[in-house]
From TrEMBL:
Domain of life assignment: Bacteria
Stretches assigned to the Mur ligase C-terminal domain: 315-437
Domain Mur ligase central, chain residue ranges per copy: 108-293
Ligand binding (ATP): G110, T111, H112, G113, K114, T115, T116
A GO molecular-function descriptor: ATP binding
Taxon lineage: Bacteria, Pseudomonadati, Pseudomonadota, Gammaproteobacteria, Oceanospirillales
Entry similarity comment: Belongs to the MurCDEF family. Mpl subfamily.
Co-factor(s): Mg(2+)
InterPro entries in alphabetical order: Mpl, Mur-like_cat_sf, Mur_ligase_C, Mur_ligase_C_dom_sf, Mur_ligase_cen, Mur_ligase_N, MurCDEF_pg_biosynth
Domain Mur ligase N-terminal catalytic: 2-97
Catalytic reaction equation(s): UDP-N-acetyl-alpha-D-muramate + L-alanyl-gamma-D-glutamyl-meso-2,6-diaminopimelate + ATP = UDP-N-acetyl-alpha-D-muramoyl-L-alanyl-gamma-D-glutamyl-meso-2,6-diaminopimelate + ADP + phosphate + H(+)
Gene that specifies this protein: mpl
Protein name, UniProt field: UDP-N-acetylmuramate--L-alanyl-gamma-D-glutamyl-meso-2,6-diaminoheptandioate ligase
UniProt keyword terms in alphabetical order: ATP-binding, Cell cycle, Cell division, Cell shape, Cell wall biogenesis/degradation, Ligase, Magnesium, Nucleotide-binding, Peptidoglycan synthesis
Length: 456
């Protein structure tokens, strides 16, 4: 079967394309922006890519079109699909119908940390010899790819997004997956372009809870009021909670301020973790993964040992390079809570040098300005911040910069931004770039400019 995917370079759709290829289909795809690491993954898998959307991309005529949720009516390729009456389906529905049947599905949901937690869980299962299948919205470096079918009968880990499914299906993606185990890591307001308020998102999470069998399990963060409200709407599955509080059945305690050493207690069993990631948020992600792995039969001690060999997924505190003692770090953070957690974790990791933050408020929620009042405090752990103005932002980034508790600047031009950062940086500094997009290839531009100024 020839499967053509619209929005193929998105993290979810690109991962889906790999699964379709592994199932033996001929796979092609289109996207407005074709860039690494996803484009590299797809090309290596033998998936033909078309840059831009056009009716001609549908020639020769595919047997099925999978349409990503970033596509809407008016898109020329979507219109061509409808006019030609080609069979089409959403990505989540295709996954649910073609990949998940017969699998023990573990869905990882939450406003923040889904990619990291799903990667952690998959790696723990892999290290335990279970050869899991997975679909993750990023590239776990331990595994090298963002999706895999896995062995028959092995668990299948899926990053479970609450965003809507497609222009023709406005349910949240995760209601399609019908997991045996669901991880609910946290919940707060996001996706202001589709949800009017937090209560609307809580309702979608309740719909996910409704799909978990009575013989399944919910792994839920302790002390999260929104998640407690979700469960109060109805819950029919066993619940285990994880957190730092005494009432959590999976309890963690920091053994270093930066979170690189911590202890986990479950019942009478205690394990100690010494690993490469930093930040309390990553400790919480790790303990959620340990709890879910336990439900799949992995002992706490084995899971903790696997964490010591875990490498963060690409674009999650990923060091892209170092020149003259100056590091360039890439991170996907694009929500005030995630920005703050990333910066606090990095700041706690070392006292050497300064932490220079470069942030593109690019997500739909950020462009709408729904979170702008929270953004100034989110950068308090940095020593200096640059805000880059993406297109279609109508609120004042200058007012945002003026309200920041650390020196802050707004930039509209990439060359000027790179020049300003490089002029400021000195040996020992870490430059952390935060965006949920490609950010104009700024990482490579920074490294090249640093090499010109500080290289030997």
């Amino acid at each position: 079967m020839h499967v053509h995917i619209l929005g193929v370079c998105g993290t979810f759709m690109g991962s889906l394309a790999r699964l379709a290829k592994a199932l033996g289909h001929q796979v092609s795809g289109s996207d407005a922006n074709v860039y690494p690491p996803m484009s590299t993954q797809l090309e290596e898998a033998g998936i033909a890519l078309c840059e831009g959307y056009a009716a001609d991309n549908l020639m020769p005529r595919p047997d099925l079109v999978i349409i990503g949720n970033a596509l809407s009516r008016g898109n020329p390729e979507v219109e061509a699909v409808l006019n030609a009456k080609l069979p089409y389906v959403s990505g989540p529905q295709w996954l649910a119908e073609q990949v998940l049947p017969g699998r023990r599905v573990v869905a990882v949901a939450g406003t923040h940390g889904k990619t990291t937690t799903a990667s952690l869980l998959t790696w723990i299962l892999e290290a335990a010899g279970q050869a899991p299948g997975f679909l993750i919205g990023g590239v776990p470096r331990n595994l090298g790819v963002s999706s895999r079918l896995g062995e028959p009968g092995a668990p299948f880990v899926v990053e479970a997004d609450e965003y809507d499914t497609a222009f023709f299906d406005k349910r949240s993606k995760f209601v399609h997956y019908r997991p045996d185990i669901a991880v609910l890591g946290n919940l707060e307001f996001d996706h202001a372009d589709i949800f009017p308020d937090l209560a609307a998102i809580e309702r979608q999470f309740h719909h996910l809870v409704r799909t978990v069998p009575g013989q399944g399990q919910l792994v839920v963060a302790a002390g999260e009021p929104a998640l407690e409200r979700v469960l109060a709407q109805g819950c029919w599955s066993p619940v285990v909670r994880f957190g730092a509080s005494d009432d959590a059945s999976w309890q963690w305690r920091l053994e270093s301020a930066d979170g690189r050493r911590f202890a986990v207690r479950h019942g009478e069993r205690v394990a100690h973790v010494d690993w490469a990631l930093s930040g309390r948020h990553n400790v919480a992600n790790a303990v959620a993964a340990l709890a879910a792995a336990s439900a799949c039969g992995v002992a706490l001690e084995a899971g903790a040992a696997a964490l010591a060999r875990f490498e963060s997924p690409r674009r999650r505190q990923e060091v892209r390079g170092e020149v003259g003692g100056i590091q360039v770090i890439d991170d996907f953070a694009h929500h005030p809570t995630a920005i703050a957690a990333t910066l606090e974790g990095l700041a706690a990791a070392t006292d050497a040098g300064r932490l220079l933050a470069v942030i593109e408020p690019r997500s739909n929620t950020m462009r709408l300005g729904s979170m702008r009042e929270r953004l100034p405090d989110s950068v308090a752990a940095a020593d200096r911040v640059w805000w880059y103005r993406p297109p279609e932002v109508e609120w004042s980034l200058e007012a945002l910069a003026a309200a920041c508790p650390v020196p802050a600047t707004v930039s509209d031009e990439m060359p000027a931004l790179v020049a300003a950062i490089v002029a400021e940086a000195r040996p020992g500094d870490r430059i952390v770039v935060m965006s949920n997009g490609a950010f104009g290839g700024i990482h490579e531009k920074l490294l090249a400019a640093l090499e010109a100024r500080h290289g030997g």
